[in-house]
Amino acid sequence: MKIGVLSLQGAVAEHIRSVERAGAECIAVKKIEQLNELSGLIIPGGESTTIGKLMRKYDFIEAIRQFSNQGKPVFGTCAGLIVLAKTIQGQEEAHLGLMDITVSRNAFGRQRESFETDLNIKGIEEPVRAVFIRAPLIQSVGTGVDVLSEYNGEIVAARQGHLLASSFHPELTDDYRLHQYFVDMVRE
């Protein structure tokens, strides 16, 4: 079992460290051919418009859709959540459009409004430390999408079958339990 982190932009090394701490092999993915050797994929944070442009430039859009259509788990964090979403508020076109969620970009404010908090996440025993940096918000979810966590009544983590998404950056803390949750999804 090998998990990849899409390495076009974002906190790649931190995700690799967290996945390895959760007991799985992890690699940086820079070419679509690498998807063939993976059992799961993480789309990290960064800037969703830039990630989307780079995914189009390097032919990752259709390749990741096919990867997902095979039932292989995909986990999007922060900008990665936006990339997974079926609908992006104020934007005509989605990127991958895989997850039946509507998201709002930068819903938690600008860089200076970044914060950390502890969140209860369905399926994880103790609260998880979460870092919010210009974080998006899941405005609504379709049927078949399970809300895993809320912050102040707003959805910040969700799962739809083999797709997992969080508004926050779990890779920026020493708490790797959300990555463990994803590794367990991949093992299933």
Automatic annotation (TrEMBL):
> Which pathway does this polypeptide act in?
Cofactor biosynthesis; pyridoxal 5'-phosphate biosynthesis
Report the EC number(s), separated by commas if there are several: 4.3.3.6, 3.5.1.2
**NCBIfam families from the entry?**
PLP_synth_Pdx2
Q: What InterPro entries does the database record attribute to this sequence?
A: Class_I_gatase-like, PdxT/SNO, PdxT/SNO_CS
Task: Give the record's subunit note.
Answer: In the presence of PdxS, forms a dodecamer of heterodimers. Only shows activity in the heterodimer.
**Any one of the GO BP annotations:** L-glutamine catabolic process
Task: State a single Pfam family of this protein.
Answer: SNO
Which amino acid positions bind L-glutamine, per UniProt? G46, E47, S48, R105, I133, R134
Q: Which organism is it from?
A: Paenibacillus polymyxa (Bacillus polymyxa)
From the Swiss-Prot or TrEMBL record, give the protein name: Pyridoxal 5'-phosphate synthase subunit PdxT
Q: Which residues cross the membrane?
A: none
GO CC terms, sorted: cytosol; glutaminase complex
